[in-house]
């Protein structure tokens, strides 16, 4: 069988599976819940859920075994990583599909981006119609813009204290694994989705294209978070994000080089870090997590408690002047952001957790 015939067969099988799942599962469920008028095409929802199932299978059957074969860090157990497994299931099968098709899609239709909006089209395919005849080129063009947007959004997540209050939950994990990518606060995830989907709407991207872009981005991020000692080499590693590259982004602050951790923000393309001077290569494997004890204690909480503690950090930051002042912060006992004086870092085992150095900061009034 030729390569083209194989691709055609796989595409046909996928289309048949999506159609069956849509007609016999998704559509009846939407009708039973009286959501058919609010949501998107059941076929698109079915495709999104099946893509999520495919992603879970790849993480569990490919990435997880690699962590046992070539680990970057060896752990006595995976106690801290287990909660991220639950986050991944909840996010991919529940939160993301619901948010995408019950919130983002109706907003896109109202903005004139839906298929039935009845307004003039917009986006790359309308600006350059020849792109519609070259779907691979169109997909790459969309994805470059999508990934570029993610890079700058990610930098803002670290730069703006009120957003870091939420994003810090993702960075609190001391056992970084292939399941850690979806360890995030749901409000943080919603905000990210609004930003990224907003770019998709502006460029006229369709729901099925957005779902496949998310799959590609999520799979690369699942792999880049994996606890594996795998790199892409000196050439490809300057273009694509690999696990050794992204693990440095999750390093605990180094007291001797306190700005070292502000690096490697790319999602799929490492080229943005190279171009904008945030790329870091050649460092040995470092412990992951955060030095702020108020954030580090996320590791001792369950899923609901972790969401609640993160929300309190966000509320303490967003209503405080320091929460809108760019820069690195820690959080005090009242969940208020405290500007960090990096040169004052010192290991303080009594306040840190499992050897994680505590951050020292100034007192701040909100």
UniProtKB/TrEMBL annotation:
Transmembrane segments: 45-66, 87-108, 136-153
Major localisation: membrane
Record's keyword terms, sorted: Lipid metabolism, Membrane, Oxidoreductase, Transmembrane, Transmembrane helix
Record bears the keyword Transmembrane helix: yes
UniProt feature coiled coil, ranges: none
Topology relative to the membrane: Multi-pass membrane protein
Subcellular location: Endomembrane system
Listed InterPro entries: Fatty_acid_hydroxylase (IPR006694), Sterol_desaturase/TMEM195 (IPR051689)
Disulfide bond found in the keyword field: no
All residue ranges annotated as the Fatty acid hydroxylase domain in the record: 139-278
Pfam families: FA_hydroxylase
Residues making up the signal peptide according to the UniProt record: none
UniProt cross-references to PANTHER family, sorted A to Z: ALKYLGLYCEROL MONOOXYGENASE, STEROL DESATURASE-RELATED PROTEIN
Name of the protein described by the UniProt record: Fatty acid hydroxylase family protein
Organism: Pseudoxanthomonas winnipegensis
Phylogenetic classification of the source organism: Bacteria, Pseudomonadati, Pseudomonadota, Gammaproteobacteria, Lysobacterales
């Amino acid at each position: 069988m030729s390569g083209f015939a194989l691709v055609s067969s796989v595409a046909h099988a996928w289309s048949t599976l999506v159609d069956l799942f849509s007609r016999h599962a998704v559509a009846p469920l939407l009708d039973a819940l009286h959501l058919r008028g609010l949501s998107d095409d059941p076929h698109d929802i079915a495709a999104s859920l099946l893509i999520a199932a495919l992603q879970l299978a790849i993480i569990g059957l490919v990435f997880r075994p690699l962590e046992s074969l070539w680990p970057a860090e060896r752990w006595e157990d995976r106690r801290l990583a287990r909660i991220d497994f639950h986050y991944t299931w909840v996010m991919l099968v529940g939160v993301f599909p619901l948010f995408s098709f019950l919130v983002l899609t109706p907003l896109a239709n109202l903005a004139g981006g839906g298929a039935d909006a009845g307004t003039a089209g917009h986006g790359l395919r309308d600006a350059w119609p020849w792109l519609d005849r070259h779907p691979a080129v169109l997909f790459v063009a969309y994805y470059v813009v999508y990934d570029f947007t993610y890079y700058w959004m990610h930098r803002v997540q670290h730069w703006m204290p009120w957003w870091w209050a939420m994003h810090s939950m993702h960075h609190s994990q001391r056992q970084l694994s292939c399941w850690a990518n979806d360890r995030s606060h749901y409000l943080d995830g919603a905000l990210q989705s609004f930003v990224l989907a907003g770019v998709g709407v502006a460029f006229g991207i369709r729901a099925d294209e957005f779902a496949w872009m998310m799959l590609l981005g999520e799979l690369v991020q699942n792999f880049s978070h994996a606890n594996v000692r795998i790199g892409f080499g000196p050439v490809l590693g300057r273009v694509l994000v690999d696990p050794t590259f992204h693990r440095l982004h999750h390093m605990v602050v180094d007291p001797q080089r306190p700005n070292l951790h502000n690096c490697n923000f790319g999602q799929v393309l490492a080229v943005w870090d190279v171009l904008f001077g945030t790329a870091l290569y050649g460092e040995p494997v470092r412990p992951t997590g955060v030095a702020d004890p108020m954030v580090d204690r996320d590791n001792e909480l369950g899923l609901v408690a972790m969401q609640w503690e993160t929300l309190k950090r966000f509320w303490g930051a967003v209503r405080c002047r320091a929460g809108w002042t760019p820069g690195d912060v820690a959080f005090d006992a009242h969940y208020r952001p405290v500007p960090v004086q990096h040169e004052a870092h010192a290991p303080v085992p009594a306040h840190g957790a499992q050897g994680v150095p505590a951050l020292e900061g100034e007192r701040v009034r909100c």
